[in-house]
Design goal:
Strand order of the largest sheet: 1-2
Distance between the termini: 28 Å
Shape: globular
Oligomer: single chain
Largest sheet: 2 strands, antiparallel
Number of helices: 28
Strand content: under 5%
Order of helices and strands: HHHHHHHHHHHHHHHHHHHHHHHEEHHHHH
Length: 603
């Protein structure tokens, strides 16, 4: 079930796997184009792509003849579930039919087979681009993304119920005579029992998550307009960004980051085109920012965090949702910080006009000294800051803190948002001590972050271990996973000790038991939650000190650099620029800034 339930995600996307297609063929013998037939065709084609022996209608004997009949039952119901999602949208039936054409198209890799859990950023871009080429707009993509969220919480119990019924009914019809040996018969029975238990576990979890007191269904429904607006703008950005020629100009920036040397790239794009590319990103970003008030954006962020919390819970229970959960987590943090820092981002992007990009190209092709990167960054920072002062920016921090809400998980996520923003500030060290935080405070924040990471890995390893036991894998594999869990626990106890001064005693619980597992989860969550409020105060205080110092000491130098002409190797101002750049390290900021905006392999 863990493996096959990911089919629900894999089929919807189309959004993640379209890069495997090589061409779009005309409809090849598919049914007449109406919504019911297109939905039925989708199920049939999706099943074929998973396994060439799968069909939407199979007799009991045909199913018994399959190597893993229980997986067919799960996959069929997941395909129907996704088909219902697509059919429920207002997307024109002709566009849905074109989606079937894509599934039908020949490709070197079957569409939904061997689905990787860590689809890359570029895969999503390729998916959006291919959908766009067959007539899907950013509005269509946004509607499907929201529909998936909506159905995931509103309709998944129904499909799980049907799946459990079919698995149970089929298991009841299995007899020993169907198999070559008693051992084969027992393996088949165990396989069905495992699938049924996984489905029941997920059914129980979703029932709890969507209970009235958790308010999830209301959040999803009330957030429809917000989600679709954001998804539409993001889809439009992905479509615009999906240009290999544009990305290829940075095909060596990782090496430049390692050597801090002149990259000497060869560009196959003009400054005008590159400026238009950045302008498109700015337009999409501005569209999102202008679509909501700050209060509405806060509500959207909190909804994203709530959904991420649910996805993490699902991931911890039955199957791996970490990739999707990570996207929602990053999405929530970016949206939350952009709510307050959006004007800085927009102005910074707006500074990258054609002249700026021409200088950027000239520098990267090796025509100017490395110090010219400082001028590029200084111009961007100066534009981003605008007429803000230390006082106005510190007031934004106070507003951010005030609007964090009271839910502890939400506050935890927003604490990490602060940590992301302040990462380069807090890690700036002088004589091996932190510049804006005490060593104790810095260690506390690091310990909380590491504990959360170790906790997530521990939960994943524990459920892998449980799955190995259920699947009756060999003892060596189970032993390796137990060693991973032991390592996780050792690291978790160290971090808990760093944060609380105590080391929990787990000896009263049977090792690897459900009670033991629950106790470790409780300890991790309570420990992390216990430091959130104080960590937020510490980080905001540290950021305020850094802001005051930045405006007093660094901003005058940045203003001076921003007004300098770009240097040649024998330029008269190179020496002065070198001194200023050495003090500010803007060349290194440049590498982080531009690789973050443009580099294709975003991690």
């Amino acid at each position: 079930m863990r493996k096959k339930l990911t089919i629900a995600l894999a089929i919807v996307a189309i959004l993640c796997l379209m890069c495997t297609f090589v061409a779009c063929n005309d409809t090849n013998g598919l049914s007449e184009v109406n919504r019911e037939n297109v939905s039925s065709d989708f199920v049939s084609l999706a099943l074929i792509r998973v396994n060439s022996e799968y069909k939407s209608e199979m007799t009991v004997e045909e199913i018994k003849a399959l190597e893993e009949p229980q997986e067919y039952i799960v996959t069929k119901n997941m395909a129907i579930f996704v088909a219902n999602i697509l059919s429920s949208t207002s997307i024109r039936v002709q566009k849905l039919a074109r989606l079937n054409d894509l599934i039908w198209a020949e490709s070197p890799t079957p569409l939904f087979a061997n689905t990787e859990e860590d689809q890359s950023f570029s895969d999503v871009q390729d998916a959006f681009m291919l959908l766009n080429e067959v007539g899907w707009t950013s509005e269509d993509i946004a509607e499907v993304l929201y529909a998936f969220i909506d159905h995931a919480f509103n309709s998944s119990l129904a499909v799980l119920g049907v799946t459990i019924e079919e698995l149970s009914a089929f298991k009841a019809n299995i007899v020993e005579e169907d198999y070559e040996s008693n051992q084969d018969y027992l393996v088949a029975i165990n396989a069905f029992d495992s699938e049924i238990k996984d489905a029941q576990d997920l059914e129980s979890l979703i029932a709890g998550l969507t209970a009235p007191e958790n308010n999830v269904l209301e959040i999803v429904a009330e957030s429809k307009d917000s989600f679709t607006t954001i998804f539409e703008a993001l889809a439009r950005t992905f479509l615009m960004m999906n240009s290999d020629p544009m990305f290829s100009i940075f095909d060596g920036i990782d090496e430049a980051q390692e050597t801090v040397a002149i990259p000497n790239f060869t560009f196959n794009i003009t400054a005008t085109e590159l400026s238009a590319y950045v302008g498109g990103i700015k337009t999409s970003f501005d569209d999102i920012m202008n679509s909501f008030s700050k209060e509405e954006m806060t509500n959207v962020t909190n909804s994203l965090i709530t959904i991420n919390k649910l996805l993490r819970s699902v991931n911890c229970c039955v199957f791996d949702m970490s990739y999707v959960s990570d996207i929602f987590s990053a999405f929530a943090i970016v949206m939350d910080m952009s709510n307050y820092a959006g004007e800085f981002i927009s102005r910074g992007l707006g500074s990258m006009d054609t002249n700026f990009m021409q200088q950027f190209i000239d520098f990267n092709e090796g025509d100017y000294p490395l110090e010219n990167s400082a001028i590029l960054v200084a111009k961007t920072i100066k534009a981003a800051i605008g007429d803000n002062t230390a006082t106005s920016i510190k007031a934004m921090l106070d507003e951010y803190k005030q609007n964090m809400g009271t839910d502890m998980y939400t506050r935890r996520m927003k604490m990490y948002g602060l940590a992301v923003v302040g990462d380069s500030v807090f890690s700036a060290q002088v004589d091996s001590t932190y510049k804006y935080l005490t060593e104790a405070d810095a260690n506390k924040i690091i310990a909380a972050s590491v504990l959360d990471h170790k906790y997530a890995r521990f939960v994943s390893d524990y459920y892998d271990y449980e799955q190995l036991l259920q699947d009756a894998e060999d003892e060596e594999d189970i032993g390796f996973k137990a060693e991973d869990i032991d390592t996780d626990i050792a690291q978790i106890l160290v971090r808990i000790n760093e944060l609380t001064g105590e080391t929990p005693d787990l000896s009263a619980y049977t090792l690897y038991s459900e009670e033991w597992f629950s106790k470790v989860k409780e300890l991790c969550n309570s420990t992390i939650d216990g430091v959130v409020d104080s960590s937020i105060d510490i980080m905001i205080a540290g950021l305020k000190v850094a802001i005051d110092e930045f405006f007093a000491e660094d901003m005058p130098k940045i203003n001076e650099i921003a007004e300098m002409p770009f240097q040649t190797y024998d330029g008269e101002n190179t020496a002065r620029l070198y001194v200023l750049d050495d003090e500010l390290e803007l060349s290194r900021i440049y590498l982080r800034l531009f690789s973050g905006i443009f580099y294709k392999n975003i991690n």
